[in-house]
Design goal:
With 99 residues, this protein is mostly helical. It has a domain of 67 residues. It has three helices and no strands. α1 packs antiparallel against α2, α1 packs parallel to α3 and α2 runs antiparallel to α3. The relative contact order is 0.16.
């Protein structure tokens, strides 16, 4: 079979490296966010008030780390507006814990 070549100026799609960066960054973000959600759930079922606060703070910090890891793996600036979404697991966990 003959190899088909793209005409000059025709889009060829993403390179393998770009696809690998996307996959690893999304995978890292998802795994770290699941850990943050687990901390928030642990806070909901904790009997100790100090543990509830501490676990929700850790969930928020872990969420920020997840966003930072995603941006770092994509070779983007770490400081961005997207970091404001990082504390979401801690905020939602605190709302569910103390409502």
């Amino acid at each position: 079979m003959s190899e088909q070549r793209n005409a000059p100026g025709e889009a060829t799609g993403m390179s393998i490296t770009a696809v690998q960066q996307w996959i690893i960054s999304v995978l890292a973000f998802t795994v770290i966010e699941h850990f943050a959600a687990g901390l928030a759930v642990a806070a909901i079922f904790s009997d100790d008030q100090d543990a509830r606060v501490g676990l929700n703070v850790l969930a928020g910090v872990t969420g920020v780390v997840a966003v930072g890891a995603f941006r770092a793996l994509r070779a983007k600036r770490l400081l961005s507006v997207w970091l404001l979404l990082g504390p979401a697991p801690g905020v939602v966990g605190a709302w569910l814990t103390f409502r």
